[in-house]
Task: inverse folding
C-alpha cells in the first residue's frame, strides 16, 4: 500500500522530493483541522496581530510589524486550503476558507477602528509602501506558500515556518486597507487590497503545488481528485495568470523610474489644515505642497503656493506665525510662490513623465 500511496506524485518529482507516508498525511490533516479553525483563539490572535501591525505601520516600527506577522494566524488556513485541494478534502477546504474569510474580515474591522481613532496620524513610508504592489510581490507570496507547505510537510523543518510568516506579510496590507479607508486615501486602500488578494491566492497555489510534489493525494490509486478540487486548482491558476500582466507592467515601470526616495515628508495634518484655512482667505491663491525638510533639530517647513497674482507681503509672515503657533515652537518656514494654477503644474509634470515613458518604450522596441 505504501508504494501506491507514494505513486500519487509524478515520477519525475518523486525522485527529487521524499513523498509523505500515510501517517504523515493524517498528522497534517489533524494539524490543519486544529490550526485552521475559526474559533475564539483565532479571533483573538487575528485582532491582536492586526492591531500590532496597524500601530507598527503608523510608527514606522519594523520590529512591531514583524511581531505582528509572527502573531497572525492567517498562514495556517491558507496552507490548509492548498492541502485540502490536493487531497480532495472538502470539509477541510470549507473550514480553511471560512477561517480565512472571517480572519480577513475581523482584521479589516480592527484596522478600520484604529484608523478612525488615529486620524491625526499621517501615512508613513511603511504604509505608503503597501501601495506599490507588483510582480515581485506575487513571486514572494508564491514562494512563501511553497516554503510554508514544505516546512509543514517535513517535521525537521517546521521551525522555519516563522520565517515564512514574515516573508509572506499578510497582516500589514490588511491593516493598511483599514487605515487608508478611514483616512480617505482610497487609492492606497485599493492597492493594498490588491496586494492582500495577491498574497492569499499565490500562497494557496504555492502550497498546493508543493503538497502535490510531496505525494499528497486523496486517492490511493493516484487518480485525479474530485471535480471541485480540480476546478479550484484551475481557478487559482487562472487568478494568478490574470494578475501576472498588470503586476509585471507595474514592476517594469517601477524599475524604469527607480526606487521612491522622498526628499521631503508631509507636514502634520494640523499644520496643513491651518495653512490651508489661511490661504483660502486669499483670492486666486492655492496651496500646492506643505512639506517637512531636513532632520531635527534643524528641520523646517516648506510651503509652495501657486497664485495668478503677486502675493501680499504679509502672507509669508502670517504663515510663519501660524506654523509656529500650531507646532508650539519656532520652526524655519520658507514660502515659495509660483505663478499660474496648481492644475497646470500638475499637468505639466504628468506630460513630462508621459513623454519620458513614451521615449523609453520606443527605445525598448528598437532594442
Result:
Amino acid at each position: 500500500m505504501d508504494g501506491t500511496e507514494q505513486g500519487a506524485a509524478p515520477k519525475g518529482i518523486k525522485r527529487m522530493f521524499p513523498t509523505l507516508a500515510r501517517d504523515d498525511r493524517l498528522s497534517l490533516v489533524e494539524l490543519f483541522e486544529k490550526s485552521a479553525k475559526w474559533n475564539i483563539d483565532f479571533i483573538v490572535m487575528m485582532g491582536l496581530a492586526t492591531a500590532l501591525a496597524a500601530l507598527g505601520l503608523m510608527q514606522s516600527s519594523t520590529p512591531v510589524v514583524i511581531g505582528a506577522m509572527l502573531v497572525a494566524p492567517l498562514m495556517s488556513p491558507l496552507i490548509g486550503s492548498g492541502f485540502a485541494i490536493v487531497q480532495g478534502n472538502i470539509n477541510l477546504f470549507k473550514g480553511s476558507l471560512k477561517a480565512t474569510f472571517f480572519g480577513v474580515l475581523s482584521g479589516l474591522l480592527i484596522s478600520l477602528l484604529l484608523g478612525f481613532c488615529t486620524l491625526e496620524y499621517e501615512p508613513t513610508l511603511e504604509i505608503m509602501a503597501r501601495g506599490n504592489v507588483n510582480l515581485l510581490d506575487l513571486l514572494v507570496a508564491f514562494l512563501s506558500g511553497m516554503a510554508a507547505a514544505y516546512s509543514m510537510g517535513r517535521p525537521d523543518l517546521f521551525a522555519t515556518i516563522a520565517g515564512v510568516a514574515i516573508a509572506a506579510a499578510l497582516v500589514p496590507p490588511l491593516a493598511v486597507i483599514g487605515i487608508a479607508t478611514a483616512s480617505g486615501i482610497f487609492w492606497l486602500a485599493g492597492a493594498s487590497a490588491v496586494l492582500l488578494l495577491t498574497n492569499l491566492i499565490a500562497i494557496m497555489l504555492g502550497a498546493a503545488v508543493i503538497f502535490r510534489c510531496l505525494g499528497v493525494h486523496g486517492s490511493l490509486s493516484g487518480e485525479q481528485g474530485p471535480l471541485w478540487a480540480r476546478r479550484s486548482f484551475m481557478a487559482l491558476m487562472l487568478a494568478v495568470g490574470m494578475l501576472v500582466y498588470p503586476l509585471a507592467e507595474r514592476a517594469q515601470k517601477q524599475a524604469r523610474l527607480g526606487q521612491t526616495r522622498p526628499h521631503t515628508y508631509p507636514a502634520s495634518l494640523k499644520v496643513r489644515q491651518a495653512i490651508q484655512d489661511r490661504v483660502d482667505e486669499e483670492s486666486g491663491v492655492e496651496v500646492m505642497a506643505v512639506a517637512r525638510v531636513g532632520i531635527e533639530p534643524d528641520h523646517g517647513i516648506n510651503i509652495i503656493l501657486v497664485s495668478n497674482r503677486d502675493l501680499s507681503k504679509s502672507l509669508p509672515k502670517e504663515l510663519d506665525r501660524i506654523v509656529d503657533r500650531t507646532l508650539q515652537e519656532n520652526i524655519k518656514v520658507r514660502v515659495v510662490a509660483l505663478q499660474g494654477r496648481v492644475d497646470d503644474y500638475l499637468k505639466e509634470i504628468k506630460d513630462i513623465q508621459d513623454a519620458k515613458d513614451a521615449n523609453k518604450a520606443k527605445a525598448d522596441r528598437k532594442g
